[in-house]
Amino acid sequence: MSSFDALVLALRKLPGVGPKSSTRMAFHLLQHDREAAHQIAQALDAAMRDVRHCQRCNTFTEAEVCDTCLDPQRNAAQLCVVETPADQAAVERTGSYQGLYFVLMGRLSPLDGIGPRDIGLDRLFERAADGEVREVIVATNFTAEGEATAHVLAEGLKSRGLKVTRLARGVPVGSELEYVDLGTIAHALVDRR
Amino acid sequence: MSSFDALVLALRKLPGVGPKSSTRMAFHLLQHDREAAHQIAQALDAAMRDVRHCQRCNTFTEAEVCDTCLDPQRNAAQLCVVETPADQAAVERTGSYQGLYFVLMGRLSPLDGIGPRDIGLDRLFERAADGEVREVIVATNFTAEGEATAHVLAEGLKSRGLKVTRLARGVPVGSELEYVDLGTIAHALVDRR
Ligand SMILES: [Zn+2]
Ligand SMILES: [Zn+2]
């Protein structure tokens, strides 16, 4: 296989990229932006080498423990559980939350073979049982899978004697948190149940 | 900047990839397919290192001169001018053409600052004047820019005493050759004017 064909094939491994767009990408880089190609290659290798999961909250970080978890200003009595780092960023942008986080890096999805282990459920239960956490705010998405995940989380956390709340229904049902406007998220935080 | 942010930024250099999809790509690779990330990085570096332009037809190749140009079975009296390697592949798939090619690697586009030099017009004129070429078939796309390019090509080639034909109008106006069905292209080849 030629290096060109190999590149087209490799680019198809990117999510959302089919044969037409991978060909267009390879063509564009070779013809117009070889510098960008090297930058992307380096960024890929660097990220795969440097980025790991925070030992406390499971988000992506380059340290053992991420900056948020290490921040003494945060309220260690509150733990907000989100599906992804992008969801965490969305909550952060509201400026309405001072507690800590746990990032599932996914959601329960039996059809896709994603079970409790894949979203680090045991690690979350262990994290929430550190003696400091008083309330776990479940902020998984209001999709079918996010709701199912929230249900499983709530059961497990309540059985461990923890107070469990859920973002209020201000967040439109069926939507992904990442794409919701700040005001709605802020309001839902205040109205959590 | 973190390696994660650097990766998101680098992936945005891919055509058609905005901030949301680059974040999704970085997340997917880190979380689910680190092996793919390394494969893409290697494929990018290999392609940028290996792939150059054929000295005769200007298409992408890893040799000095590409396989098509070296093929003694091809009819050296015919030269088909296309915009991209994908367009060349579309013509090849028809099985209706036995001549050689010249690949412009673009089209004239004054608004985007793409002039005669960027599409190797001088090299094409030189190539077409090798004494063997009898007919130049202009197969640029039937878009406004493709037509304008065809016009400039035809003027230059005719002034050098070459016979210039254009694919027949069987190809739907406004469409990109790459996406046209084989039968239409084959018919347009026969009916070239
Ligand atoms: Zn952390
Ligand atoms: Zn060639």
From TrEMBL, chains A, B:
SMART domains listed in its UniProt record: TOPRIM
Record bears the keyword Zinc: yes
Zinc finger (C4-type): 54-69
UniProt record similarity statement: Belongs to the RecR family.
Record keywords: DNA damage, DNA recombination, DNA repair, Metal-binding, Zinc, Zinc-finger
Superkingdom as given in the UniProt entry: Bacteria
Organism in which the protein naturally occurs: Caldimonas brevitalea
Keyword DNA repair attributed: yes
Alphabetical list of Pfam families matching this protein: RecR_C, RecR_HhH, RecR_ZnF, Toprim_4
Gene label: recR
GO terms for MF: DNA binding; zinc ion binding
GO biological process terms on file: DNA recombination; DNA repair
Protein name, as recorded: Recombination protein RecR
HAMAP family (UniProt xref): RecR (MF_00017)
InterPro entries associated with the record: DNA_Rcmb_RecR, Rcmb_RecR, Rcmb_RecR_Znf, TOPRIM_dom, TOPRIM_RecR
Domain annotation Toprim: ranges: 77-172
Function: May play a role in DNA repair. It seems to be involved in an RecBC-independent recombinational process of DNA repair. It may act with RecF and RecO.
